[in-house]
Design brief:
Layout (H helix, E strand, L loop, with lengths): L1 H13 L3 E10 L2 E11 L4 E5 L6 H9 L6 E6 L2 E2 L5 H6 L2 E3 L12 H11 L15 H12 L15 H12 L6 E5 L7 H12 L6 E5 L3 H7 L2 E6 L2 E6 L1 H6 L1 H8 L8
Parallel strand pairs: 3-8, 3-9, 6-7, 7-8
Antiparallel strand pairs: 1-2, 1-4, 4-5, 9-10
Helix pairs in contact: 4-5, 4-6
Pfam family, one: ABC_tran
InterPro entries: AAA+_ATPase, ABC_AA/LPS_Transport, ABC_transporter-like_ATP-bd, P-loop_NTPase
GO molecular function, one term: ATP hydrolysis activity
Length: about 260
């Protein structure tokens, strides 16, 4: 038995962070995803780009378990999670942010982050007030600093600027030692200054945390990603390094001069 457990741990250590094999998703006769296969290495930062309706958000929903794929398989760190509900994927280190902010506006920044840390801990249902020096409280403080919100840690979330709320969402996604994060358009609606800070935060994440980012802002996406997947009509159209995608004439014709990017 011990050898079996050791073998599983060894395999997980060498497995890809995320593997998709022939993943398709249909809504009736509408094909949102068609035969998507990709491999993302541990610690890799992957951008998924494409025009409206390319299938990017549906892809995220299949990875997180919000949608079940019509066919195909999804593996996280070597484990087949295709049939797992979202909370089981969270337990295995997967996190996600959404296009629309989901925060406790009536609580402070630090309380939001503390609840996120508490929510993925073993003691999340305990009614006992945390003691001074509580490890989760220190984790919350560290995450607030990591997303550059220490100066507003005690402010109500409702009073934050929009860009600060997006930074707070990243802190929530970092709670509980995630291994892989899905960022859904984190730069949407940000000013140039806020986008620059977002880039600094994302590039400054610990190297062992991989992520996949949907982003219509090409400048942000190509600066924070080490590899890019372009989607078109529910299929993978191109893959390559950021400079390869930026210089590709077909990509330029289809996307770089295009409009906004809401996904599907």
């Amino acid at each position: 038995m011990a050898e079996t457990v050791a073998a599983r741990l060894s395999a997980a250590g060498t497995a890809a962070a995320l593997e998709l094999r022939g993943v398709s998703r249909y809504f009736g006769a509408l094909a949102a995803l068609v035969d998507i296969s990709m491999t993302v290495r541990p610690g890799e930062r992957r951008a998924v780009l494409g025009s409206n309706g390319a299938g990017k958000t549906t892809l995220f929903n299949c990875i997180t378990g919000d949608f079940a794929p019509t066919s195909g398989a999804i593996r996280l760190f070597g484990e087949d999670v295709t049939a797992f509900p979202p909370y089981e994927r969270i337990r295995r280190g997967l996190r996600r942010t959404y296009q629309i902010s989901l925060l406790f506006n009536g609580l402070s920044v630090i309380d939001n982050v503390y609840l996120a840390c508490r929510g993925v801990s073993r003691g999340r249902f305990s009614l006992i007030r945390p003691r001074r020096g509580d490890a989760l409280a220190q984790s919350a403080e560290d995450l607030v600093a990591a997303v550059h919100l220490h100066e507003v840690r005690d402010q109500l979330v409702a009073n934050l600027a929009y860009g600060q709320q997006r930074q707070l969402e990243i802190a929530l996604a970092l709670a509980g030692a995630p291994r892989f994060i899905l960022f859904d358009e984190p730069a949407a609606g940000l000013s140039p200054t806020e986008r620059a800070e977002l880039i600094e935060i994302l590039t400054g994440l610990p190297e062992h945390i991989g992520y996949m980012i949907i982003e219509h802002d090409m400048d942000v996406a190509l600066r924070v990603a080490t590899r890019v997947t372009m989607m078109h009509n529910g299929r993978i159209f191109k893959e390559g390094a950021p400079h390869e995608i930026e210089e590709d004439p077909e990509v330029q014709a289809l996307y770089l001069g295009g409009g906004g990017d809401g996904g599907r």
